Amino acid sequence: MAKFKRILLKLSGESLMGEKGYGIDEKRLGEYADQIKEIAAMGVQLGIVIGGGNIFRGLTGSKKGFDRVKGDQMGMLATTINALALCSALNAIGAKCKVLTAIRMEPIGEFYTKDKALDLLSQGYITIFAAGTGCPYFTTDTGSSLRGIEIEADAMFKGTRVDGIYTADPEKDPTATKYDDISYDEILNKNLKVMDLAATVMCRDNNLPIVVFNMDKVGNLKKVVAGENIGTYVHP
Ligand code: UDP
Fold first, then answer.
1. Which of 67, 76, 203, 235 can pair with 131 through a Cys bridge, CB separation 3.0 to 4.6 Å?
2. Which residue spans within the chain are E strands per DSSP?
3. Rounded CA gap, 105 and 33, in Å?
4. Are 39 and 225 a contacting pair, CB within 8 Å?
């Protein structure tokens, strides 16, 4: 049984490259699509935001001499490429899916509005929100909090490659320990690198709980949707 009726799932673009150094790994994409289809079949309404770090990040680009705004626009296009790839993988296994874009680019996807999103979700479409917020200087984490709040999701599920929030970066510090749950303010006060500040503050100010979990382990998405405490739960 699903504990959540409507969720906003944030997927990292970086994870989508799997073992590859760049782009999209078809195996990882397929694993994501299978897991997403499985929870949609449980009746969970799913809005998805996917990052673009496997293709292009504006900040990295600006360090190499790209104009920041153009670089961010390239990053938003990268998230759209990933959104199309995921939608196509979902369609290929028989799941209903649509892409809405934060920047007008029909016929790639319809232009996002809250009404359109809610309409699609209530019809059982997995709805992917592409191009982040549509604005430079933001990230797909902020895009996820925004869309999660707009669609009145029960929670934002942040799929990462680690299994939750740690006292320090577990990939660098072997003494780091995992939180089962934590408050927004504790994340902010301890400056824990979970999401960018703007995204965390938006979730706090609008009471959107966050669940951080390891999306790269097949089966985990179903577990968190069922309410199993395998990640870190972020609350007021
Ligand atoms: N981006 C942006 N505005 C947004 C969302 C994303 O400008 O609202 C750009 C930004 O350049 C970012 C890139 O898109 O670096 C890719 O998104 P993100 O870094 O969040 O992807 P992830 O790290 O999750 O793969």
1. 76
2. 6-11, 45-50, 97-101, 110-111, 126-130, 155-160, 181-183, 210-214, 232-235
3. 24
4. yes
Distance between Cα 177 and ligand 1 center (Å) = 28
Binding site membership of 159 for ligand 1 (Cβ less than 6 Å): no
Ligand 1 contact via 160 beta carbon (within 6 Å): no
Which residues have C-beta within 8 Å of that of residue 33, sequence separation ≥ 6?
86, 89, 90, 92, 93, 95
Q: 160-184 pLDDT, tens per residue?
A: 999 999 999 888 899 999 999 999 9
CA 136 to centroid of ligand 1, rounded, Å: 8
Q: Using the 8-state DSSP alphabet, how is residue 85 labeled? A: H
Q: Three-class SS of residue 208?
A: coil
Tokens of 233: 């739960």
Q: Is the pTM higher than 0.90?
A: yes
Cβ-contact 60, 23 below 8 angstroms = no
Amino acid code (one letter) for 47: G
